[in-house]
Amino acid sequence: MLLSSTAASAGFFSSFSQPQALPDGAQYQDGTWTGSPVRQYYGYVQAQAHVKNGKISSIDILRAPTDRRTSRYINSKALPMLEREIVMAQNTNVSYISGATLTSQAFLNSVHDALRKSLK
């Protein structure tokens, strides 16, 4: 997935950054927590985190770009991998998926927002 230099200079990447680490000793409150939709170059990504017994039990993908075949393919591969990594790590401090950098950034930011909302 290549982006033109015009896209880069137009500021499409400026709003992305690795989510800040959650505070040490932070505990998640049980429930279902919805992250904000995060706009990336090809559309919005939004996630929902499910917390049970203070642990991330699963992540739902509420929104991801689907209007391009390439987007559907990338999302079908990258998002399930990110979901598994987040549940195993119990936080959003996971690596981006190669070839899906924009999707990874947007997804991790949305999940991070959901988890921030769940902090006790």
From TrEMBL:
<dbReference type="InterPro" id="IPR007329">
    <property type="entry name" value="FMN-bd"/>
</dbReference>
<dbReference type="Pfam" id="PF04205">
    <property type="entry name" value="FMN_bind"/>
</dbReference>
<protein>
    <recommendedName>
        <fullName>FMN-binding domain-containing protein</fullName>
    </recommendedName>
</protein>
<feature type="domain" description="FMN-binding">
    <location>
        <begin position="40"/>
        <end position="118"/>
    </location>
</feature>
